[in-house]
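Folded chain entry —
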Amino acid sequence: GCSACYQIRCTDPKLCNKSGATIVVADFTQNNQTDFVVSRSTFSSLAIAKKGPRLLKSGIIDIEYKRVPCEYKGQNMVVKVDQSSQYPYYLAVQFLYQGGQTEIVNVDVAQVGTSEWHYMTRNHGTVWDIEKPPGGALQFRFVVTSGYDGKWLWAKKSVLPSDWKSGGVYDTGIQISDVARDICNACDDNDSAWAESP
């Protein structure tokens, strides 16, 4: 769920507007509950005009939610070198500004100018890592869900310089706008696509 975009709306018609708010999931829990913890301003934006304070006072509310494509207009996907990385022995990365409605399901890394690809492992959430990464400037390729299948995307230019730094953010030159399709046609109907939070 991390990095996925959702539209959420509360279910009390006396307090809540119908459009709700779009959020990006930044973390998740290990239990079976579905909770969205949002900022005070996002929580208020769920309310009908002038009902924000009353909605805030309620604290916890019932919501409906559905997955929607992420939109980062004019923003390429970037690679952020995770703080846990230790140059040159261990590399952990996150992909930020992943547009569309897709999931990254496979990541490979190679030294620029070679065809020797090394598989990265999903460590947790959106973090992918590799021990003993290739030396030199690095490029990435990955599989994202797209349509009913997956497709390879390749950041062909040098993405990470040979002296990459922990915490560094590097442009991939790629923009993703694909939308993964659901198998059920009923999910395309506006009302049936919403799920209720327990």
Residues 73 and 99 are 9 Å apart (CA to CA). The domain at 77-174 is CATH 2.60.40.760 (Immunoglobulin-like). The chain is about 5% helix and 40% strand. The helical segments are 40-45, 52-58.
